[in-house]
Design a protein that fits this description.
Radius of gyration: 19 Å
Helix content: 40-55%
Mean pLDDT: 95
Largest sheet: 4 strands, parallel
């Protein structure tokens, strides 16, 4: 399903349907005949939660019985990370419809933090000494693909998808720096400093809130804790930061900084 089918990747044995996160007849028609729906959370938007509700309503009307939803680690109505609150509300809405569910609760992305190091030569934010069990995006994709091959096994389960270790921002910059062959830094900011530094990128207030609370959620300990869900699904451990960095060098040295 895609908003713009002409841009969708053409895959063998797959049909592309035009649909949006709404409950229009077009979306209901696209969902008709689907029993298990893999619902990737909508793009960050001030109206994202209503988009989720509308899409779930459309799925219910079309006869979908099981939704596999990409949620967020430790999602709660009072989560420090502001966007996690939308995920908690979406989970509740799916349950309120009486639908079978599988919630894939991803933690922050491990490769995102690596990209910050590569692009800016540092990570900065009000994370303090907090730790995060960040997870690799490719591990999440592998979990989703595995579950969708046998969704009945994972009915009405909530899976916390984390990496195999809790890492501080200092841990991350140190390991990435060793692989880049340069010294990187973690710059500890106050909350006010974090908001001010991010004004470099024009955005709306809710976006600044999300960016800053990424780090304050880590600082207060909400993003720490290691789950065994990935190993249970994939029958192998989640990928560590060291393993990820080593693999990138083996597959093309794209992380190296030759400037």
């Amino acid at each position: 399903m895609a908003r713009r089918p002409e841009r969708a990747i053409k895959l063998p044995k797959a049909e592309v349907y035009k649909a949006s996160y709404d409950k229009t007849p077009e979306t209901v028609e696209a969902l008709t005949g689907v029993s298990v729906l893999f619902m990737v959370s909508a793009a960050e938007h001030p109206n994202r939660l209503q988009q989720h509700y509308d899409f779930i309503d459309a799925a219910e009307k079309a006869g979908v019985t099981h939704i596999v939803y990409t949620s967020f680690y430790k999602a709660a109505s009072d989560s420090t990370f502001t966007l996690a609150r939308d995920h908690a509300a979406t989970e509740s809405y799916i349950k309120s419809k009486g639908l079978t569910y599988t919630f894939l609760r991803d933690n922050f992305y491990l490769d995102f933090f690596v990209e910050l190091c590569q692009t800016y030569g540092e990570i900065k934010g009000p994370a303090g000494l907090g730790r995060v069990s960040a997870v690799l995006r490719s591990d999440i994709a592998a979990v989703a693909a595995t579950i969708l091959q046998n969704p009945e096994k994972w009915e009405n389960q909530t899976l916390d998808l984390t990496g195999p270790e809790d890492l501080s921002m200092s841990d991350i910059v140190q390991q990435v720096g060793e692989h880049l062959g340069k010294e990187l830094s973690y710059l500890e900011e106050t909350v006010d400093e974090a908001y001010q530094s991010r004004k470099e990128w024009p955005a709306q207030n809710w976006e600044y809130d999300a960016w800053v609370t990424t780090y304050t959620a880590i600082a207060v300990g909400e993003q720490s804790g290691v789950s065994d869900a990935i190993s249970r699904v994939l029958k192998r451990p989640a990928t560590s930061l060291a393993e990820y960095l080593e693999k990138q060098f083996e597959e093309g040295d794209y992380l190296k900084d030759d400037t």
